[in-house]
Amino acid sequence: MAVQQAPSQLGRIICLFGFLLLFHSGYSTFEHLSYLKAVDGHEAGLPLDITIELLMSVALFGLGIVLVADDFKEILMETEMAKQSIESLDARPSFYSFNHRGRAVFRNVVLKD
Amino acid sequence: MSGQQINPDDALYVDMYIAKNSQTMTFIRSSYSAILGLAAGTLGLTNWSGFIFYFLGSAFLSLLIFLVKAKGNPSPYFRQPLDVFTEGVLGGMLSYILFWTLLYGIIHVYD
User: Fold this and answer.
1) Touching check for B65 and chain A: CB below 8 Å?
2) Among candidates B31, B64, B66, B54, which has minimal Cα distance to B101?
3) Domain boundaries, chain A
4) pLDDT tens digits, residue range A100-111?
5) CB-based contact (8 Å) between A110 and chain B?
6) What is the pLDDT averaged over residues A35-53?
């Protein structure tokens, strides 16, 4: 697999803010429902500010996650080949040669210890 | 080559990068489905309104991916450019339902 790049710090901070907003709105909802139960009120939708807070946290999370994720790679073979040098193409395994004249030429060479 | 069919697309695309891109898409979609599920459970959505919320959220996310990740031009990154809007939407729905029911239960049912 290709090398993972470091996630963007900005995206992480945005995700953190999104999480705090989400947590706070969840807690507010819970509190609101407990209040309604205590005063025997009917549940008639959430208050507008909690709804707006939730939608804002969802929007922030979207931006944060998109920033944190790795960048897309260009999948065309053409653009990938344009980045590689000719040496990397020459070094492919089908060019390896094991039956060469080196065995005869260097027969009398003594390697030093 | 005897009996082997050669797919012309094999030489056209780098398979590893196709897999890498779909992995990135899966990461974005599944994390965001979990977040959408948390929001839907907190809002107390039930029945079809929850699924409509999911599809609206996914459309918003697709737009973000299209604008921020693909920089407005998805064709170098996907075999079909429309994949940027559709890939992983139905797969993310399972984790969406999981977190939706979890938060709905925590906040609206067992208080």
Assistant:
1) yes
2) B54
3) 9-96
4) 888 888 888 888
5) no
6) 81
